[in-house]
Amino acid sequence: MMDDKQDHERLKTELWGLSFKNPVMPASGSFASGREYGEYLDLNCLGAVITKGVAPIPWRGNPAPRVAETYGGMLNSVGLQNSGLEVFKREDLPFLEDYDTRVGVNVVGKSVEEYVEVVKGLRGHAVDFFEVNISCPNVKEGGVAFGVDPDMANLVTEKVKKVADKPVIMKLSPNVTDIVAIGKACEEGGADGLSLINTLMGMKIDIKTGKPLLGNVFGGLSGPAIKPVALRMVYQLYPHVKIPIIGIGGIRTWQDALEFIMAGASGVQVGTANFQNPRVMIEIIEGLDSYLKEENIGSIREITGISHQSVNR
Ligand code: SIN
What we know:
Elements: E1 13-15, E2 18-20, E3 24-26, E4 48-50, E5 67-70, E6 73-76, H1 85-97, E7 102-107, H2 112-121, E8 129-133, H3 144-147, H4 150-163, E9 168-171, H5 179-188, E10 193-196, E11 200-203, E12 205-206, E13 211-212, E14 218-222, H6 227-237, E15 245-248, H7 254-263, E16 265-270, H8 273-276, H9 280-294
Parallel strand pairs: 3-16, 4-7, 7-8, 8-9, 9-10, 10-15, 15-16
Antiparallel strand pairs: 1-2, 5-6, 6-14, 11-14, 12-13
Helix pairs in contact: 2-4, 4-5, 6-7, 7-9
This protein binds succinic acid.
C-alpha cells in the first residue's frame, strides 16, 4: 500500500457535521471503489472516496464503443454499468471499511423507486453520505431526465431524503438553462449538498464510416475543456443556496481546485484527470496545502467563495 502524507491541518473540512481530512475526492465513475488505484496512492489520504453509481440490480451499460478522445477531454457513454446493490454491499463496502476516509455512495436509478431502493438498502451500512445522480446523460430512463426539471429534481430529493439515514447530495447536470432553479429545487426538497457538474452532452463522428462513433451516438464530455463551464455554474449557484457545493469539471491541478473553492465549492471532485495521472489527487492535496502555507491562510474555509466579495454583477 502507498504511504502518502495524510495530515494537512489547513485542509480539514467539515461537511454535514462530519470531518473530512481535506476537500479532495474522486468523481464517481472515474475511480470505481478505489481498489485499482491503491497501487498508486494511499486511499487514506483522500477526503472521501465517491463510488461508481450503484443501482438496485446489475446494469449492462451501453453498446461499445463507449469512450472517445476529444480536444482537452473525453466523451463517455458507459450507461452506468454496475454490478448492483448486493455485489456492492458484499465486495465494495467491506473493502472501503478498511480505509480511514469518508465514503460517498453514488446512487443511480431508472425510477424514483429505484433510487429509494438503493438508499434504503444501504441503511445501517458504513456509508458517510449519498450522492444521487440525477444527471447522467447516457441512459434513457432516470439520470438526466430527473436533473433537467426542477419539479422532478425536487421529488427525487424528497423521496430519497425520507429514507436516507445519511446526508444526501444531489449531482446536477450542466445540460440545463437555469442551474439555479435546479439547485434550489433540490435544496427545497431537503438536499444536504449539491455536486456539479456532470458531463456536457456531446458526440463524435467517425469520418471513415460517416457514422457516430459512440455506440450510443451521444456521450458526456468531461476533462479540462469543460472547466470554465463548470466553474461558471458553481459561481452562479453559490449565492442562491445555503447548502455546501462540491465542484466538479475538468479539475487536474491544485490551481483548478482552488478556483472552484474560491467560486464557492466546499469540496472538489477529480474525474478524467485520474485516467491520465493516477496520483493527481495527491498532487492537488499537496499543492493546495503548500499554497495555504505560503499565503499564510490558516484554513481552506477562509477562502471558500472569496471570489464573490466585492463583485458587482
Ligand atoms: C455513464 O456511466 O454513462 C456516465 C455516468 C454519468 O455521467 O453520470
